[in-house]
Amino acid sequence: MFDWLQKSFQQNSILWLLVSSIIGGIIGAMTKLIFDVILPQKLQNSLQVKKVVEKYRNPILRASLDLQSRLYNIVDQSFLQIYCHRSDVDKEYAITSTLYVFAEFLAWTEILRREVQFLDFGNAKSNQELERLLGNISRQFTSDALNFTFRLPKGQQRAIGEIMIVEGESLECIGFAKFASKLENEPDFSRWFSSLKEDIRVLASQPKNYGERLQDDQRLVEIYNALVKLLEFLDPNYVYVPKKRMKVLASL
């Protein structure tokens, strides 16, 4: 048996060498492909994903925090009742800035919706959770189970988001100064805010003691609480938002 194998090997040594060379070449080519192409590409993709996440996470985080802060001031600090009964300048600022924080949040929500195919918060489960949280906020705006003050149908939410976006090398939200100018001078722009503006005026006209809750605060409380859940997702380690800001408000 051993003699047969030895004889076979001697007779087919060239074939064995050829096979070995082919196998070695294949292994070498695969190794080169992995280290020269696949791994650098994966690293590059990882860096690109990180840049995209940072690009969109921070603006939606800031917009969410701005809206949450204003809602807290309206609901628990009587912001509208105080500012809308001072000077005309204070009243105008209170109304315009409140409209802006609503619009800014809806703008970044719309940007995320458009760019979602490029967004990756780590895995599919995280992406689904982000969509669920944003969807929950949208539902608080549309819910018929709440007082109709500050109700925004989905189409109006999308429209406000769209007209707030500036398209260039990347999608951005317009700033406060440009927003105030367009609100005052462009009827096709300002008409999308007419219902929100009226709701702000109605709420501001209602007498309210410090810390008191009105029936018209109901939807704002639910939106606030939904925003807290979003902020917890975006900033789980409380890097940007203090933990004390993550407390939900008691529903009416």
What this model shows, in words?
With 252 residues, this protein is mainly α. The chain has one domain. The chain has helices at residues 2-11, 13-77, 79-83, 88-115, 124-142, 154-163, 176-185, 187-190, 194-205, 218-234; strands at 165-167, 171-173. A two-stranded antiparallel sheet has the order 1-2. Helix 4 (88-115) packs across helix 6 and helix 5 (124-142) runs antiparallel to helix 10 (218-234). Residues 42-46 have low confidence and may be disordered.
- Percent helix: over 70%
Sheet with the most strands?
2 strands, antiparallel
What gross morphology would you assign? globular
Radius of gyration: 29 Å
Mean pLDDT: 83
Q: Termini, distance in Å? A: 91 Å
Number of strands: 2
Give the helix tally.
Answer: 10
Order of SSEs:
HHHHHHEEHHHH
- Strand composition percent: under 5%
* Alpha-beta content class: mainly alpha
Query: Low-confidence spans: pLDDT under 50, at least 5 residues?
Result: 42-46
What strand line-up does the widest sheet have?
Answer: 1-2
Topology:
Blueprint: H1 2-11, H2 13-77, H3 79-83, H4 88-115, H5 124-142, H6 154-163, E1 165-167, E2 171-173, H7 176-185, H8 187-190, H9 194-205, H10 218-234
Antiparallel strand pairs: 1-2
Helix pairs in contact: 2-4, 2-10, 4-6, 4-9, 5-10
Summarize the structure.
The chain has helices spanning 2-11, 13-77, 79-83, 88-115, 124-142, 154-163, 176-185, 187-190, 194-205, 218-234; strands at 165-167, 171-173. It has 252 residues and is mainly alpha-helical.
